[in-house]
């Protein structure tokens, strides 16, 4: 039976991938209700089936309140976390270990690791126990330890590797109570977005994807995943990424 979620939460819904994912869900699932979260909720796509929420990492009470309200209204079938940071005004990917700073590492881990883990804490319990439901968070191929042959990007690689471990732990725990749930990390490809913009020069032709294409392919994978894949990190084409 095809996966057709009726209640979908998207975190980071104002970003390139998050916004495209919202539009793709609205197009595919014409009766689904969307609960969209972003630091700048005014940038979330406007639609009659979209309910917009602001969220901040520091606002744990807001997380609780939002989760409680969604639970009371019927829970969730699909949770998609599209938050992520490679660089900022104050932090850049480290080419050498000499560039590491505590502040830069903390900023990257807050966005890439801590925030998704808190979303898991508050929103995984909203998934149904006895039918397929999916939690998917944007990870990255460079978070693979065994696939790292270039080095560099210390904080980003480490934060995504840590996220993959958290996803694995959550998948094991959820199997005890939610046997039909699937918890996965996802590599979206190199997407034309503010995250990749400084690193697009010199990329091979055809490697850079538009957000709409990436979102559609990610949703294709989510539609097909099963219990054998829970706890894993999958690429946009459905292939498994080595830990």
Automatic annotation (TrEMBL):
Gene3D superfamilies: NAD(P)-binding Rossmann-like Domain (3.40.50.720). It comes from the Bacteria. PANTHER family: NAD(P)-BINDING ROSSMANN-FOLD SUPERFAMILY PROTEIN, SHORT-CHAIN DEHYDROGENASE/REDUCTASE. This is NAD(P)-dependent dehydrogenase, short-chain alcohol dehydrogenase family. The lineage of its organism: Bacteria, Pseudomonadati, Pseudomonadota, Alphaproteobacteria, Hyphomicrobiales.
């Amino acid at each position: 039976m095809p996966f057709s979620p009726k209640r979908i939460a998207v975190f980071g819904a104002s970003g390139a991938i998050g916004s495209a994912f919202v539009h793709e869900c609205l197009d595919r699932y014409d009766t689904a209700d969307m609960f969209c979260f972003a630091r700048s909720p005014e940038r979330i796509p406007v639609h009659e089936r979209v309910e917009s929420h602001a969220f901040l990492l520091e606002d744990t009470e807001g997380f609780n309140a939002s989760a409680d309200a969604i639970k009371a209204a019927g829970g969730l079938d699909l949770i998609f976390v599209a938050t992520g940071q490679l660089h900022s005004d104050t932090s850049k990917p480290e080419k050498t270990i000499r560039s590491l700073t505590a502040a830069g590492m903390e900023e990257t881990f807050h966005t890439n690791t801590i925030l998704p883990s808190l979303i898991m804490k508050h929103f995984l319990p909203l998934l149904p126990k006895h039918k397929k439901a999916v939690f998917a968070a944007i990870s990255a191929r460079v978070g693979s330890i065994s696939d790292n042959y270039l080095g560099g990007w210390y904080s980003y690689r480490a934060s995504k590797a840590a996220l993959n471990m958290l996803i694995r732990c959550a998948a094991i725990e959820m199997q005890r109570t939610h046997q039909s749930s699937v918890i996965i990390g996802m590599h979206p490809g190199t997407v034309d977005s503010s995250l990749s913009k400084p690193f697009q020069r010199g990329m091979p032709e055809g490697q850079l994807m538009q957000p709409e294409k990436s979102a559609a392919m990610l949703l294709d994978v989510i539609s097909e995943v099963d219990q054998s894949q829970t706890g894993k990190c999958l690429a946009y084409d459905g292939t498994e990424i080595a830990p």
